[in-house]
């Protein structure tokens, strides 16, 4: 996303605890910052892309977080996949200091991010969305304004819930196909042109058939499903989602949940990690 912003002519300052990511951005003329504080002080707009809720809260609301240094009139865009309540907590603090917040989670995976072909859903003030629309269009091809604060976060989690469910039922179909000695390439081609087709089938499954990676991990899948299900207080009303989540946890018991998600399919496809 940073590289695509730079290609579009934006001045981008970067900070990350992963130095190798910073180095890639700096080689493309991004400006390196030494901390979240200095990045916030030197930016009119701060964009965050972080792995989980706790880190998002620390980076925004912590003693040395972005909101401790951002100027009145500036904008915070939260690209991370976090619960709506997290966005609302960040927005509550931001409003006190005159900072506008947009929740803008993305979908499409690493390959779409590299191509600038992400789907982006945006929640928050509409006028703030309009001010930032050119930025979103620099990193994504499909940009949707979806409503008030937290609405985009909710939609992203629901998208993840459906996608992960599709992935795990595809896993069971492949298990049956292997047992029946079905030609997997023919199976993929036919399902791809039939009613069983899904984004996961057309993208992740075909990549794994080549021995490639998905770009995601079981830990991320578990996190997204947990956040999504927590939006409904009574999870007994989510029996299918509960079974899918339990299945992923069970399949990764005793292994690293930080390996690529292709490890869930190593019974049928060659795995490259």
- Named CATH topology of the largest domain: Rossmann fold
How big a fraction of the residues is strand?
A: 5-15%
Structural class: mainly alpha
> What would you give as the CATH superfamily of the largest domain?
NAD(P)-binding Rossmann-like Domain
* CATH hierarchy, class of the largest domain: Alpha Beta
Strand order of the largest sheet: 3-4-5
Task: Give the low-pLDDT segments.
Answer: none
E-strand count: 8
Give the SSE order as H and E letters.
HEHEHEHEHEEHEHEHHHHH
Concise account of the structure shown:
The protein has twelve helices and eight strands. With 273 residues, it is mainly alpha-helical.
Record keyword descriptors for this entry.
single chain, 273 residues, mainly alpha, Rossmann fold, N-(1-d-carboxylethyl)-l-norvaline Dehydrogenase, domain 2, three-stranded parallel beta sheet, three-stranded mixed beta sheet, 12 helices, 8 strands
């Amino acid at each position: 996303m940073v590289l695509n912003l730079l290609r579009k002519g934006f001045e981008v300052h970067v900070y990350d605890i992963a130095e190798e990511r910073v180095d890639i951005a700096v080689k493309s003329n991004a400006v390196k910052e030494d901390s979240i504080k200095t990045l916030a002080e030197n930016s009119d707009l701060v964009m965050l892309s972080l792995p989980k809720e706790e880190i998002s809260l620390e980076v925004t609301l912590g003693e040395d977080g972005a909101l401790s240094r951002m100027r009145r009139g500036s904008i915070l865009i939260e690209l991370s996949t976090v619960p709506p309540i997290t966005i609302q907590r960040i927005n509550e603090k931001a409003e006190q200091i005159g900072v506008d917040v947009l929740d803008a989670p993305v979908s499409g995976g690493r390959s779409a991010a590299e191509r600038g072909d992400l789907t982006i859903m945006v929640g928050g003030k509409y006028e703030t969305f309009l001010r930032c629309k050119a930025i979103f269009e620099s990193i994504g091809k499909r940009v949707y304004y979806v409503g008030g604060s937290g609405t985009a976060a909710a939609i992203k989690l629901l998208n993840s819930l459906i996608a992960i469910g599709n992935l795990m039922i595809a896993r069971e179909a492949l298990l049956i196909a292997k047992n029946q000695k079905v030609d997997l390439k023919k199976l993929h081609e036919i399902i791809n042109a039939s009613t069983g087709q899904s984004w996961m089938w057309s993208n992740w499954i075909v990549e794994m058939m080549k021995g490639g990676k998905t770009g995601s991990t079981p830990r991320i899948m578990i996190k997204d499903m947990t956040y999504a299900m927590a939006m409904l207080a009574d999870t007994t009303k989510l029996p299918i989602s509960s079974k899918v989540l339990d299945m992923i946890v069970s399949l990764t018991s005793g292994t690293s949940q930080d390996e690529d998600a292709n490890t869930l399919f190593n019974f049928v496809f060659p795995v490259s990690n």
